[in-house]
Amino acid sequence: MATELDCRGLACPEPVMRCRSLIAEKRPGSLLVRVDNAAACENVSRFLEKNGYTVSARQESDALWEVTGTVGAVCVSAGETARPAPAAASKTAVLITTEFLGSGDDELGEKLMGNFLATLSDLGDSLWRIILLNGGVKLAVKPGKALDSLKALEASGVSVLVCGTCLSFYGLLESKAVGETTNMLDVVSSLGLADKVVRP
To answer: Does 54 share its domain with 96?
Structure first.
Protein backbone atom coordinates (compact mmCIF):
# COMPACT_ATOMS: atom_id res chain seq x y z
CA MET A 1 0.00 0.00 0.00
CA ALA A 2 1.30 3.45 -0.97
CA THR A 3 2.30 5.98 1.66
CA GLU A 4 0.01 8.98 1.17
CA LEU A 5 1.02 12.61 1.44
CA ASP A 6 -1.58 15.38 1.17
CA CYS A 7 0.09 18.59 -0.01
CA ARG A 8 -3.03 20.45 -1.11
CA GLY A 9 -3.06 24.08 -0.04
CA LEU A 10 0.73 24.26 0.33
CA ALA A 11 2.68 26.98 -1.46
CA CYS A 12 5.82 26.27 -3.49
CA PRO A 13 8.23 24.69 -2.60
CA GLU A 14 6.51 23.06 0.40
CA PRO A 15 5.12 20.00 -1.50
CA VAL A 16 8.62 19.09 -2.69
CA MET A 17 10.11 19.71 0.76
CA ARG A 18 7.49 17.45 2.37
CA CYS A 19 8.35 14.72 -0.15
CA ARG A 20 12.05 15.16 0.55
CA SER A 21 11.52 14.83 4.32
CA LEU A 22 9.35 11.73 3.91
CA ILE A 23 11.85 10.04 1.59
CA ALA A 24 14.79 10.88 3.86
CA GLU A 25 12.94 9.51 6.90
CA LYS A 26 11.14 6.43 5.56
CA ARG A 27 12.13 5.81 1.90
CA PRO A 28 8.69 4.33 1.06
CA GLY A 29 8.55 1.87 -1.84
CA SER A 30 5.38 3.49 -3.09
CA LEU A 31 4.15 7.03 -2.55
CA LEU A 32 0.91 8.86 -3.43
CA VAL A 33 1.12 12.66 -3.30
CA ARG A 34 -1.94 14.90 -3.67
CA VAL A 35 -1.48 18.51 -4.82
CA ASP A 36 -3.86 21.23 -5.96
CA ASN A 37 -2.13 22.77 -8.98
CA ALA A 38 -0.32 21.76 -12.15
CA ALA A 39 3.01 23.40 -11.19
CA ALA A 40 3.17 21.41 -7.93
CA CYS A 41 2.29 18.24 -9.85
CA GLU A 42 5.20 18.79 -12.26
CA ASN A 43 7.65 19.72 -9.50
CA VAL A 44 6.76 16.72 -7.31
CA SER A 45 6.91 14.38 -10.32
CA ARG A 46 10.36 15.59 -11.31
CA PHE A 47 11.64 15.42 -7.72
CA LEU A 48 10.44 11.81 -7.32
CA GLU A 49 12.00 10.82 -10.65
CA LYS A 50 15.33 12.33 -9.55
CA ASN A 51 15.11 10.20 -6.42
CA GLY A 52 14.69 6.86 -8.16
CA TYR A 53 10.90 6.61 -8.43
CA THR A 54 8.91 5.65 -11.50
CA VAL A 55 6.21 8.30 -11.64
CA SER A 56 2.70 8.59 -12.99
CA ALA A 57 0.48 11.63 -12.54
CA ARG A 58 -3.13 12.37 -13.30
CA GLN A 59 -5.53 15.23 -12.77
CA GLU A 60 -8.57 14.13 -10.77
CA SER A 61 -10.42 17.47 -10.78
CA ASP A 62 -9.81 21.22 -11.18
CA ALA A 63 -8.14 21.30 -7.75
CA LEU A 64 -6.67 17.82 -7.37
CA TRP A 65 -3.70 16.13 -9.01
CA GLU A 66 -2.38 12.76 -7.81
CA VAL A 67 1.27 11.84 -8.30
CA THR A 68 2.18 8.20 -7.73
CA GLY A 69 5.81 7.17 -7.33
CA THR A 70 7.12 3.62 -7.14
CA VAL A 71 10.75 2.81 -6.45
CA GLY A 72 12.45 2.01 -9.75
CA ALA A 73 15.60 0.12 -10.58
CA VAL A 74 17.87 3.19 -10.40
CA CYS A 75 18.17 4.96 -7.07
CA VAL A 76 19.42 8.42 -6.33
CA SER A 77 20.34 9.29 -2.76
CA ALA A 78 17.39 10.54 -0.72
CA GLY A 79 17.16 14.26 -0.25
CA GLU A 80 18.99 15.18 -3.45
CA THR A 81 17.03 17.79 -5.37
CA ALA A 82 19.47 18.96 -8.01
CA ARG A 83 22.51 17.31 -9.53
CA PRO A 84 25.44 19.35 -10.78
CA ALA A 85 26.14 19.30 -14.49
CA PRO A 86 28.64 16.56 -15.23
CA ALA A 87 32.24 17.18 -16.25
CA ALA A 88 32.06 20.97 -16.53
CA ALA A 89 35.10 22.81 -15.22
CA SER A 90 32.80 25.50 -13.86
CA LYS A 91 29.06 26.11 -13.78
CA THR A 92 27.57 29.49 -14.56
CA ALA A 93 23.93 30.13 -13.71
CA VAL A 94 22.08 33.11 -15.17
CA LEU A 95 19.27 34.49 -12.98
CA ILE A 96 16.72 36.56 -14.91
CA THR A 97 13.89 38.27 -13.03
CA THR A 98 12.43 40.57 -15.70
CA GLU A 99 11.59 40.42 -19.38
CA PHE A 100 13.53 43.64 -20.03
CA LEU A 101 17.22 44.40 -19.70
CA GLY A 102 17.79 47.65 -17.84
CA SER A 103 15.30 50.39 -17.09
CA GLY A 104 14.07 53.31 -19.12
CA ASP A 105 12.34 52.27 -22.34
CA ASP A 106 10.63 48.86 -22.40
CA GLU A 107 10.95 48.48 -26.18
CA LEU A 108 14.70 49.02 -25.93
CA GLY A 109 14.88 46.79 -22.85
CA GLU A 110 13.15 43.98 -24.75
CA LYS A 111 15.65 44.26 -27.62
CA LEU A 112 18.58 44.31 -25.21
CA MET A 113 17.32 41.19 -23.43
CA GLY A 114 16.99 39.42 -26.79
CA ASN A 115 20.58 40.40 -27.63
CA PHE A 116 21.80 39.32 -24.18
CA LEU A 117 20.24 35.86 -24.51
CA ALA A 118 21.49 35.49 -28.08
CA THR A 119 25.09 36.07 -26.95
CA LEU A 120 25.01 33.81 -23.86
CA SER A 121 26.32 30.93 -25.95
CA ASP A 122 29.66 32.79 -25.99
CA LEU A 123 30.13 31.57 -22.40
CA GLY A 124 30.72 28.13 -23.91
CA ASP A 125 30.64 25.01 -21.76
CA SER A 126 30.55 26.97 -18.51
CA LEU A 127 26.95 28.08 -19.18
CA TRP A 128 25.02 25.54 -17.13
CA ARG A 129 21.59 26.87 -16.22
CA ILE A 130 19.22 29.77 -16.86
CA ILE A 131 16.69 30.51 -14.12
CA LEU A 132 13.60 32.58 -14.93
CA LEU A 133 11.73 34.19 -12.01
CA ASN A 134 8.99 36.84 -11.67
CA GLY A 135 8.59 38.76 -14.94
CA GLY A 136 11.46 36.77 -16.43
CA VAL A 137 9.11 33.81 -16.97
CA LYS A 138 7.43 35.82 -19.76
CA LEU A 139 10.58 35.19 -21.83
CA ALA A 140 9.64 31.49 -21.91
CA VAL A 141 6.24 32.35 -23.42
CA LYS A 142 6.36 35.43 -25.64
CA PRO A 143 7.39 34.74 -29.27
CA GLY A 144 10.47 36.60 -30.39
CA LYS A 145 14.25 36.69 -30.30
CA ALA A 146 14.44 35.91 -26.55
CA LEU A 147 12.28 32.78 -26.84
CA ASP A 148 14.19 31.60 -29.91
CA SER A 149 17.49 32.07 -28.07
CA LEU A 150 16.23 30.19 -25.00
CA LYS A 151 15.11 27.28 -27.20
CA ALA A 152 18.49 27.19 -28.93
CA LEU A 153 20.33 27.25 -25.60
CA GLU A 154 18.16 24.45 -24.22
CA ALA A 155 18.74 22.39 -27.38
CA SER A 156 22.49 22.82 -26.84
CA GLY A 157 22.23 21.31 -23.36
CA VAL A 158 21.72 24.37 -21.16
CA SER A 159 19.12 23.76 -18.45
CA VAL A 160 16.29 26.32 -18.39
CA LEU A 161 14.26 26.49 -15.17
CA VAL A 162 10.99 28.44 -15.19
CA CYS A 163 9.32 29.32 -11.86
CA GLY A 164 5.95 27.55 -11.61
CA THR A 165 4.58 29.95 -8.99
CA CYS A 166 5.43 32.88 -11.29
CA LEU A 167 3.85 31.22 -14.33
CA SER A 168 0.69 30.60 -12.31
CA PHE A 169 0.64 34.18 -11.02
CA TYR A 170 0.76 35.57 -14.57
CA GLY A 171 -1.69 32.95 -15.91
CA LEU A 172 1.00 31.53 -18.22
CA LEU A 173 1.39 27.96 -16.95
CA GLU A 174 -0.16 26.42 -20.07
CA SER A 175 1.69 28.80 -22.42
CA LYS A 176 5.28 27.91 -21.47
CA ALA A 177 7.19 27.08 -24.66
CA VAL A 178 10.66 26.31 -23.28
CA GLY A 179 12.28 24.98 -20.12
CA GLU A 180 10.99 22.95 -17.22
CA THR A 181 8.61 24.25 -14.60
CA THR A 182 10.45 24.47 -11.31
CA ASN A 183 10.10 25.51 -7.67
CA MET A 184 12.03 27.66 -5.22
CA LEU A 185 13.85 24.66 -3.73
CA ASP A 186 15.36 23.90 -7.16
CA VAL A 187 16.22 27.58 -7.60
CA VAL A 188 18.02 27.80 -4.26
CA SER A 189 19.82 24.50 -4.90
CA SER A 190 20.91 25.70 -8.35
CA LEU A 191 22.28 28.97 -6.98
CA GLY A 192 24.18 27.02 -4.34
CA LEU A 193 25.66 24.59 -6.88
CA ALA A 194 26.71 27.27 -9.37
CA ASP A 195 30.31 28.47 -9.36
CA LYS A 196 29.16 31.85 -10.66
CA VAL A 197 25.75 33.56 -10.89
CA VAL A 198 25.14 36.23 -13.54
CA ARG A 199 22.26 38.70 -13.11
CA PRO A 200 21.64 40.91 -16.13
So the answer is: no
Pairwise CA distance, residues 38 & 29, whole Å: 24
Are the C-beta atoms of 12 and 38 separated by less than 8 Å? no
> CA 200, CA 89: separation in Å to the nearest integer?
23
Last residue of a domain, one of 39, 71, 103: 71
Question: Quick check: is 124 in a domain?
Answer: yes
- Residue 193 placed within a domain: yes
pLDDT digits (tens, 9 = 90+) for 65-80: 999 999 863 433 333 3
Instruction: Cite the DSSP H helix spans in the chain.
Output: 14-26, 38-50, 106-119, 145-155, 164-169, 184-193
Q: In angstroms, how far is CA 156 from the centroid of its own chain? A: 18
Give residue-wise pLDDT tens across range 143-182.
Answer: 989 999 999 999 999 999 999 999 999 999 999 999 999 9
